[in-house]
Amino acid sequence: MLDKLADIRREYSRGGLDRQDLHDDPIVQFDAWLKDIIDTGLPDPTAMTVATVDANGQPSQRIVLLKDVSPDGFVFYTNLGSRKAEELKQNPRISLHFPWHIIERQVKVCGVVESLSSLEVSKYFLSRPRESQLAAWASQQSRPISTRQLLMSKFAEVKDKFAKGQVPLPSFWGGYRVIPHEIEFWQGGEHRLHDRFVYRRQPDNTWQIERLMP
After folding, report:
1. Catalytic residue among 14, 19, 130, 192
2. Positions of E strands within the chain
3. Which of 23, 33, 120, 122 could bridge to 28 as Cys pair (CB 3.0-4.6 Å)?
4. Tens-place pLDDT, residues 142-182
5. Residues flagged as binding site for substrate
6. Which segments are annotated as binding site for FMN?
């Protein structure tokens, strides 16, 4: 199979993307494309790749779920002791990628993060399923663990500890808002002649739109 990898390809033919198709506001445009992917029934349509960089310049990526988007930015939540959180402390620059290949689209976001307020974090945490709240307490995200059985044992301990009443917000759990300065929309095209448009934030907070070569 490995010797066949170079031959794996397909044609993109769902349609092109012109400047007149784009809204002047990239968040409005993103909302429209997000609705399109949700309407397909694709599992985890809000899944995005989150890329951070450590102190040595080593990039790292992982899949995270987008939990809110507004003119203020893109929101996600995490354990504040995780690798991504530690890297964002040192370098707040971040990139998001939405791989919507089923409709032959991609969106890339570049920006910087700001920490969410305790009120925002608490409100979202309390809206999560109880088991997810307990899992947040049980897992020291990104830390080594010898067996899955040990993880499940920690989960059982936490479940017993908070058997009665509301699960409190862990002090080590929070969220980020990605404030974008660049958002790129990619639409697959025939013969690899894809359509790419990038929005770049200007000093007056307006957006400049430019077509890119594929």
Report:
1. 192
2. 47-53, 59-65, 68-70, 73-79, 93-100, 105-115, 173-187, 195-201, 207-212
3. 23
4. 788 889 999 999 999 999 999 988 999 999 999 999 999 99
5. 67, 124, 128, 132, 192-194
6. 62-67, 77-78, 83-84, 106, 141-142, 186, 196
